[in-house]
Amino acid sequence: MMSNFYEPRSRCFLITVSKEEVDALTNMFKDLGKANPSRPEKLERTQVREQLHVQFGVTDDIILDRIVRVFDLDSDNYVNLSEWLQGLSVFLKGTYEEKKQFCFKVYDLNDDGFITREEIFNLLKSSMTKLQTEEDPDEGIKELLEITIKRMDADKDGKISRDDFSEAVDADILYLEHFGSCLPEPKDVEAFLKVAATYPPYRATYY
């Protein structure tokens, strides 16, 4: 089961997301939940994927899947209201430290606490495929992988730990999304919250 790294920060949830924004996101969740009459208190992963794709332009299949999996804290293949709000609080308005944790979790494809060479290769290949014009694009990716490991693997164990990732990002912010874009642009955050604010209010009957 995926570890719940949101727990330590749950008490300060409203620091980065206002009450009005929480209400709007709740209304949006409940409206989307109407598509699942037998389970309106949860969203299908595909519904969350669609929102990420349509509202934020996330097109990389690996990144899309991983963001949804990070949202799905109990790994039940659904996103409930609490997971929706907690996930979006970091995705939309997370602190610097929260964003580092979030991106690491997205890139840690098998949830073992490390970003391995194989994971780096798959992430880079997925994000760079459309840009490749070489006959053997894998060679270019392998070269970038080796450069990345050399610069980010502080303890030289051949993989990137949470601490390695954090230190690399602290030294150069460009490493935050080095393996694929998984955070929204400010203009997209503003647009999404405006869309959420248009959903009609519902009486709170489930969480």
Automatic annotation (TrEMBL):
A GO molecular function assigned to this protein is: calcium ion binding
**What residues does the EF-hand domain cover?**
59-94, 95-130, 140-175
Q: Which domain of life is it from?
A: Eukaryota
What the entry lists under PROSITE patterns is as follows: EF_HAND_1, EF_HAND_2
> What is the name of this protein?
EF-hand domain-containing protein
Q: Which organism is it from?
A: Patiria miniata (Bat star)
Q: Would I find Transcription among this entry's keywords?
A: no
Q: Does the keyword Metal-binding apply?
A: yes
Task: List the Gene3D superfamilies hit by this protein, alphabetically.
Answer: EF-hand
Print the keywords alphabetically: Calcium, Metal-binding, Repeat
